[in-house]
Amino acid sequence: MSVAETAMDERMPTAVDPADTSLWPTVPTMRQLPLDLGHASSTSLDDFAAGRNHELLCWLRAWPDSAQPGAPTYLWGPRGCGKTRLLQGLAHHALSQGWHVLWLGTTGFQSWETESPEAPTLVLLDDCESLDAQQQHWAFNLFIESAASLAAARQAAEDRGDPEGARPGMAIVAAGRVPPVDLPVRDDLRTRLGWGLVFSVEPLDDEGVREALLSDCRRRGLKLAEGVLPYILTHFSRDLGFLMGLLDRLDRYALAEQRVVTVPLLKQMLAQEHA
């Protein structure tokens, strides 16, 4: 059984012919783990403030046409620059294109499925620098599956007399805090993560962070009273992941309290969290 099939609890077949067992690596049995990825299924690439990442966003929005079949893509940048949100946005985009999505991070697997079992699969690898030995093993075997998928697609295209029409059943996009060459992972995985396209994700400036937070509020339908956003930007880290998480907690807290989001409400929530 393949990594992708096992991770999705046998509910999401890949495009490679399962009868050809020579193509598949031997992997241990594992179970799907629930992950809290926030609004991964609804986060759009349009919600991401481009800043100095215009070229990367254009590439992501044009995916999969912008990708080289069979070649991985790797995004790297410092903590809080928005890599995970970009992967979430690509997950949303892939689902809208009819692809299955498989997410592997430090906590485990998560999957989203489309209606067609024969649809291709987008594999997203997050926090690559922090994957443990077992997770690195799974990630490496996903690369093996991706190569097998491409080989099968090319053979099928040749059989129907359309060698240029190969459509692999799997694509891989990964992210980490450092360039592929500096990743503290096994050599064979590091090599595979770095042989395709590599993009540097540039952190947003103060105005970009502000716009990203406002965009997230609009998407949630979350209204902030005057002074809340300046208070957040003044008193908290510019780590975009942290700030988005703070907005998520504040949104849920305001709903539970049935109150408008104000600075006193924010302080009350934080005091309860640290009580």
Description:
- Helices cover 42% and strands 11% of the residues.
- It is of the alpha/beta class.
- It has 2 domains: 198 residues, P-loop containing nucleotide triphosphate hydrolases (Rossmann fold, 3-Layer(aba) Sandwich), CATH 3.40.50.300; 68 residues, Helicase, Ruva Protein, domain 3 (Orthogonal Bundle).
- The longest helix is centred in the middle third of the chain and has 27 residues.
- The N and C termini lie far apart (47 Å).
- Uncertain segments are 8-41
For the residues shown, what is the average pLDDT? 83
Overall 3D geometry? Answer: elongated
Can you write the helix and strand succession as a string?
HHEHEEEHEHEHHHH
Structurally, the number of domains stands at 2
In short:
This protein is of the alpha/beta class.
Q: What are the main properties of this structure?
A:
275 residues; alpha/beta; Rossmann fold; Helicase, Ruva Protein, domain 3; 2 domains; 6-stranded mixed sheet; 42% helix
Secondary structure layout:
Blueprint: H1 3-7, H2 54-62, E1 73-76, H3 83-96, E2 100-105, E3 108-112, E4 121-125, H4 133-159, E5 170-176, H5 187-194, E6 197-200, H6 206-220, H7 228-235, H8 240-257, H9 263-273
Parallel strand pairs: 1-5, 1-6, 2-4, 4-5
Antiparallel strand pairs: 2-3
Helix pairs in contact: 6-8
